Structures
1.
Amino acid sequence: MMAKLLLKNRELLLLAAIAVLVALIALRFPAFVTVANLAGVYNDTSILVILALGQMAVILTRCIDLSMAANLALCGMVAAMLNAAFPGLPIPLIILAAMALGALLGTINGALVWKLDIPPIVVTLGTLTIYRGLIFLLTDGKWINAHEMSDAFKALPRLELAGTPVLSWLSLLMIALMVLVMGRTPLGRAFYAVGGNPHAAVYTGIDVGRTRFFAYCLSGTLAGLSGYLWVSRYAVAYVDIAAGFELDIIAACVIGGISIAGGIGSVPGAVLGALFLGVIKNALPVINISPFAQMAISGTVIIIAVAVNARAERRKGRVILKKAEAV
Amino acid sequence: MADAQISPRNIPDRLEGRGVRLLKSWEALLVVVAAAIFLGNSLASPYFLDPWNLSDATFNFTEKAMIAFAMALVIISGEIDLSVASIIAFASTAMGYAVQLGFDTPALVAIGLGVGLLCGTVNGLLITGLGLPSIVVTIGTMSLFRGLSFIVLGDQAFTGYPESFAWFGQGYVWWVFSFEFALFLLLAVIYGVLLHKTNFGRAVYAIGNNQTAALFSGVRVARVKFTLFLLTGLMAGLASICLTSRLGSTRPSIALGWELEIVTMVVLGGVNILGGSGTIPGVVLAALIMGMVTFGFGLLNVPGIVMSIFIGLLLISVIALPILWQRARRRLAH
């Protein structure tokens, strides 16, 4: 009974997998499972969680956003430059600017997908290199280091409210917002409808292209926010920050059971997928495995996750008219 | 990933003549672009038209193009292989390891090709055997293969390749024609014949257009796809031999990000990313264009990352412009 429930519900399955993983680590290193350390692991994964939420919305509509990490890097760099040029500028304003820029970059992706019907993978492959290249044009390859950033700029993500850093609170806030958007707004339902069956979505009056456009706006905005968080947390900004991170984001979604074919996935899934990667990343140094092994491990995890999810997705034909069949 | 286009309802009674179709083709557009870039480059820099300089320029694209040929077939069949650059790294790491054990050139070549085939087999089994989506599987194996190189090498590098091994990446067949360029031409012919003149090639198109219909008309879909992933693996192994030989060393970050450049090359060559159409001559032209752009910018001291902006813009605009052009024409016709 229990096992059946577990196999049916991919979020529970993933939660169980994370629990087993943490328990295995705890057997050798009990210190890993202290509340403080687990909170630290969550805090460390917060940015990935936020990004995975945006990517989830895009993947649900049968698209993909490969440009998220480049978007993050560009917005983070602009935030850092704003701060370095105008140290007096209030931090919330900088965050808003980063989010607005991220939204704009997402809008470009969305408009190309919506208005020109270019396949999403091609669009974001192109903008990925363009956005990253723009950072170089903007900075000439120079770094912005910790001493050029104001203290308030660097302090915000670390600031503790009720014993938890703002970074964690922000990601929790985004999770709550996304649960509302996905479950309680027409837009959220449209994401599922468009991904589940685009033709049926058209007949129910949903504009498929427009829905995809908004999914890209959402992922862009979240990438912009993450840009500020990344740069202020690590207190450095340069051209190559978060290079290759787009694949980690997609990996988190895939592990979280979000179907790359669209229409299937949930907010808890995306969050758990990100946390799974976060636990692995934080556990490796503890159990004394070289950090170089992380890449191979996450690759293996992606393959296992997609194999497990594909089995769950393989739906059998459904009986629609039970009554008629009974007769 | 996106939906299939609506099929045209107005089928003409007669197709346009061969010549007219050729003039209107994507390849014709690419020839014009290539000619323009060639002309622009020779005007912008006096060093461009030197035969040895041009010969050096070919190294920019030959290794990527080898993989792009196989990738074109994979994409035409409606799949994608993002793990190719990681296969290069893994094969290179295996060869470097073999050097430390004292193996010589023939063994190294066999190991490079063998590892490529092995990686292709892993991809092929996961995709056709388990029926998993290729984009996710190859994102996974992309991490896995490069990750294995990182486990073996960490922040170290393998060097000390035998002198005879250097020929693959640095040797010349005749005058200014390098071994790599000759290999590129040979592979272009082989893949051109394979895709355009054999039953296998027709099957690839059939699968890309309608996999179910292909299956019902007797095409062994799984076997064809498996072969295609073997081919990309093998080509990545071959490219790994050339690249390792040219650089003379192996780091785990070798060929980082190449998968995106290779996909760009294939799409620029007119292959539909959704599958079903594309030609090898188109890919050859796209390879030449990308190589010339990179080299021309290099002569003008433009940094690599600015070139990548240009490549990104090129990728989006070559796809967007025909769409915009068609729309404008339709509007004028009404």
2.
Amino acid sequence: MAHSTATTVTGKSVWDGGTSPMGASYGKLMMWFFLLSDAFTFSGLLITYGLVRSSHQAYEGLVSTFTFSTEYWPVPEKVFEAVPFLHGYELPLVFVGIMTFILIMSSVTMVLAVEAGHRMDRKAVEKWMLWTIIGGVTFLSCQAWEWTHFIVGTGVPTMKDVFNTETGLWEQIPILGANLHVNQYGPQPFADFFFFITGFHGFHVFSGVMLNFLIYYNTVTGVYERRGHYEMVEKVGLYWHFVDLVWVFVFTFFYLV
Amino acid sequence: MAHHAHEPQVTVLPPDKAKIKKLWTVALYLLLITIVEFIIAFSVPHEYKQLRVWVFVALTIVKAGYIVGEFMHLRYEVKVLFWSILIPIIFIVWMLVAFVYEGIKMPVFQ
């Protein structure tokens, strides 16, 4: 188990060897620095989103009369307003709110697993790890639905100018849904960033679920009990909380602002 | 049940009630802040864009503080570790300022 305070030998600096100056094991420390580097990666993505967004035309009119156009950046709450089984209702950001709730709850169950690990309570670690895995899988399922809805599209198609190489004339074609070539909801980069940012985060969640499952498996088979500590739960817990942390930022900068 | 000789003797400690209660309280704060964000998103008109953005950013930083400080336990770590993680964040802040400034100066895409 990691010490929460560094031990100081009288008259000797903690940096003179024989002790952990940062009061954390090698593995835990490296997890922290990995997460710091990962924070830079996500910041790169989100900040580029900010750069591209601020260099595009903003929507100037009233939000109530907003329609999709490739001329200006869309109002996010008008894009993400669908909820499964409630087709046709305008429920802006409700589904994203549910996803946020799921991820925060799975973070709580993770930290409860860590707490149980400190007490060597195998049964409790198993229980809370299982809840965390369920939370992660639920979040991924929600994301799969959201992506499908985003890709397929709904409502009135957006018209896009396309150059016809056969006739040599500009034509208007209707666009429904979005991918990396066309985008119903606004300028092309909006769809591109949606796929890259939520996709990169989703892949982190997927990796987290895999790691959580590994921890769960090792707990059930008694690996950590034989080892005498549950520090692995703590390390993977750090990763899992980080995934929640990133979502908090994605939620604000992609969906709210 | 057969007891194997190589199985270690494990002493399970009772749950730390105060600690668990605190974790649930933090979770409640996170959910309440998210609800406040929702209320602002639908009650403050879009004309107050600057105000909305700054309030959202501030609330997000508060949420991030709770997650990193309490859930990831960074608040209770040794000061050297705490600052080793926090100080490099300055570069992210700089990246944000520099890139959004560039974005505003850039010609508008069509």
